From TrEMBL:
Keywords: Lyase, Metal-binding, Zinc
Cited InterPro entries: CENP-V/GFA, Mss4-like_sf
PANTHER family: CENP-V_GFA DOMAIN-CONTAINING PROTEIN-RELATED (PTHR33337:SF40), GFA DOMAIN-CONTAINING PROTEIN (PTHR33337)
Protein name (record): Aldehyde-activating protein
Entry keyword annotation includes S-adenosyl-L-methionine: no
Domain CENP-V/GFA: 5-121
Protein family membership: Belongs to the Gfa family.
Amino acid sequence: MSHLHTGSCLCGATKFELEGEFKRFFLCHCSRCRKTSGTAHCANLFAPGATLTWLSGEDKLSYYRVEGTHFARTFCSLCGSNMPTDSKERGLVAVPAGCLDSDVDIMPNAHIFMGSKGNWDDHLGDVAAFDGMPT
């Protein structure tokens, strides 16, 4: 069964289509994900064997990889939004959940790299929550 997903960056310069099924969904708390997201974790979906097609803005994409690791990020060079990374050598596409415009049909499988989470990442569920900016 094939699934079609769409997404874009914050400024709208880069848009993509992904044909394939998300098999894993991890919330990663490693220091690299915290640095690239500026928050407690990255929410990444993994689609083995998926086909990623850039509909616009492929020339606006930048790529960064930590040498000697699998850690890589593709991002819009205009607005900085994390975008999908097509890891051909690993046979999968990693998609930041936040860049999707279509619904995600799976729930996160796990929080990972909790051993290196930020010291402020405890009890976030206990923090007040608002539908908009609090006054």
